[in-house]
Write a structure and sequence with these properties.
This protein has one domain: UDP N-Acetylglucosamine Acyltransferase, domain 1. The protein is of the alpha/beta class and 194 residues long. α1 runs antiparallel to α2. 13% of the residues lie in helices and 22% in strands. It starts with 32 loop residues before the first helix and ends in a 13-residue tail after the last strand. It has two helices and 18 strands.
Length: 194
């Protein structure tokens, strides 16, 4: 166990944001509370539920709450979707088991794209140095892209057509089409198809 951190006199001069005063709670809901709560129950029973084996039923539940889901989309169990009305998925795309789409802003996934197991896509963050106010920016994963297992994709990112994101990569900037982004290098581009 590491020893406790020592704090010097300068630490008392560093400001701390009073989180009880932080703006943003409920700002991204853009639907009535009853709909948010109804979606939460529906998601638990039909989408996140690991025993629910029907991808088609998951897609129908998402569509019923405003998601635009294309034909032939596969959505595996344990998927979490914050707000289905902020989600669009193109034809024949695959969403792997345990994917969490925390979409306080729009998430668009193109056709024939893959988001693999345990990946986390978030469109929201906070103004840490100011007042912890909510900041949202959309995420786009273009046609044919593959976000492999356990990646994190942050708000404002555009992943190019047929790009591949290697496992465990944090994607915090745009990714060019037809390249491989590896977490082993700051930004590694390699043509996927030549």
């Amino acid at each position: 166990m590491a020893p406790p951190a020592e704090h010097g006199p300068a630490d008392t001069d560093v400001p701390v944001i009073d989180l009880s005063q932080a703006p943003g709670e409920g700002e991204a809901w853009n639907r009535p509370k009853w709909m948010i709560y109804l979606w939460s129950a529906t998601e638990l029973v039909l989408v996140t539920n690991p025993w629910q084996i029907s991808s088609g039923l998951r897609a129908k539940a998402l569509r019923a709450f405003g998601a635009k889901i294309g034909d032939g989309v596969i959505i595996r169990p344990r998927t979490r979707i914050k707000f289905p009305w902020n989600l669009e998925i193109g034809d024949r795309s695959w969403i792997g088991e345990g994917v969490w789409i925390h979409n306080q802003d729009q998430v668009t996934i193109g056709h024939d794209a893959v988001v693999s197991q345990e990946t986390f896509i978030t469109t929201g963050s906070h103004a840490h140095r100011k007042d912890m106010g909510l900041i949202t920016r959309p995420v786009t994963i273009n046609d044919g892209a593959w976000v492999t297992a356990r990646c994190v994709v942050t708000g404002g990112v555009n992943i190019g057509t047929s790009a591949v994101i290697s496992p465990n990569t944090v994607v915090a900037q745009d990714v060019s089409p037809n390249v491989i982004l590896s977490q082993k290098a700051e930004y590694f581009e390699k043509p996927r198809f030549t």
